[in-house]
Design goal:
By secondary structure, this protein is of the alpha+beta class. Helix content is about 40%, strand content about 15%. The relative contact order is 0.14.
Length: about 240
């Protein structure tokens, strides 16, 4: 989970086959796939580019000839965004570099804390040296690894429910991500809800997996809230 694709290696392996990259989590502030050989880059503009959780936008960038074709198809089928949401997205991008720097630092602080907590079985964040993609992330994303992380909670779904109740006033549940405030989500019950348990397990989605989207709050406040919420769990950890 939270793996970082080795873009130059993928481009080399594909040869003449064009590479399309969804770079929503990273944004152009942390990595620019076109500079590594990708032909098109997609972003969910509803996430970090806007940064405030109040629009529905999608964006694509890349080779001009390909983008012109996509623009024509969008105009034909009416999938272009409305002016107000476009303005909100444009306004949000003015603070994108500052926000990505902040959430990357905060996510790293939270990941390091969670990695040492007895209620946590495993933390997934490429900024950690223990993550399988750490070397690739360090090479392609020297300015930070973004604000998204995940962790496996001991105790499975009941423990997740207890944690979410304890966090409800400070770090609320949200089915989306990349808002200005820190949120948590439960992949087994949202994004991967319609997969069987065996299929989720094959993807690394356990019943205790929590996804956290770091926001702009003071990291010290988030650490305190997480510590208090985790203390509410009645999980017996083997000695």
């Amino acid at each position: 989970l939270m793996e970082v694709a080795d873009l130059p290696a993928i481009v080399a392996a594909l040869g003449e086959v064009p590479l399309l990259v969804d770079s929503t989590f990273a944004t152009p502030c942390l990595v620019r796939p076109v500079e590594h050989g990708a032909k098109l880059v997609f972003h969910s503009g509803s996430k970090y580019l806007n940064g405030h959780g109040d629009v529905m936008l999608g964006m694509v960038a890349g080779e001009s000839a390909l983008v012109r074709k996509i623009r024509g198809i969008g105009a034909l089928y009416g999938v272009n965004s409305n002016p107000f949401e476009s303005w909100l997205g444009s306004r949000g991008m003015r603070t994108l570099p500052l926000r990505m720097e902040r959430v990357s630092k905060t996510a790293m602080v939270l990941a390091e804390f969670l990695a040492t907590h007895s209620a946590i079985e495993r933390v997934y964040y490429p900024g950690l040296e223990t993550h399988p993609s750490h070397a690739v992330a360090k090479r392609l994303m020297p300015r930070g690894c973004g604000g998204m992380l995940a962790f496996d909670l001991r105790g499975g779904q009941p423990a997740v429910a207890t944690l979410f109740r304890a966090l409800s006033e400070s770090i609320p549940f949200s089915p989306t991500l990349a808002d200005a405030r820190t949120t948590v989500s439960y992949p087994a019950g949202t994004s991967h809800k319609f997969m069987t348990k065996a299929e989720r397990t094959a993807c690394g989605i356990s019943d205790g997996l929590v996804r956290l989207s770091a926001g702009l709050e003071d990291p010290a406040d988030l650490l305190r809230e997480l510590d208090l919420a985790l203390a509410s769990l009645s999980v017996t950890v083997p000695a």
